[in-house]
Amino acid sequence: MKISTQEIQLKTKGNCDIKDITSEISAAVMKSGIKEGQCTVFSVGSTAGITTIEYEPGLLKDIPKLLDKLIPPAVRYHHDDTWGDGNGHAHLRSALFKTSLSIPVFKGELTLGTWQQVVLLDFDNKSRSRRVIVQIIGE
Ligand code: ZN
Question: Which of 5, 39, 98, 124 could cross-link 14 (Cys pair, CB 3.0–4.6 Å)?
Answer without folding.
Answer: 124
